[in-house]
Design goal:
Elements lengths: L6 H19 L12 H14 L7
Length: 58
């Protein structure tokens, strides 16, 4: 229990909050999660390697 809240109540409340947030942000594009394309990921990795050579994979 967290702060005298039963786990089932906490889980239900969090699930409902997540659903409400998801529904609210559904059509708000700045809030969307997106990943760079594989080619852009390679470009970003090269930039990181240039700044932090110890992070380069072996």
């Amino acid at each position: 229990m967290l702060s005298a809240v039963p786990p089932s109540t906490l889980a239900r409340t969090l699930r409902r909050a997540e659903e409400a947030l998801s529904k609210t942000l559904e059509k708000y594009s700045p809030a969307r999660i997106s990943w760079p394309s594989p080619s852009h990921q390679l470009e970003l990795a090269k930039l990181v390697e240039a700044l932090e050579p110890l992070l380069k994979p072996h």
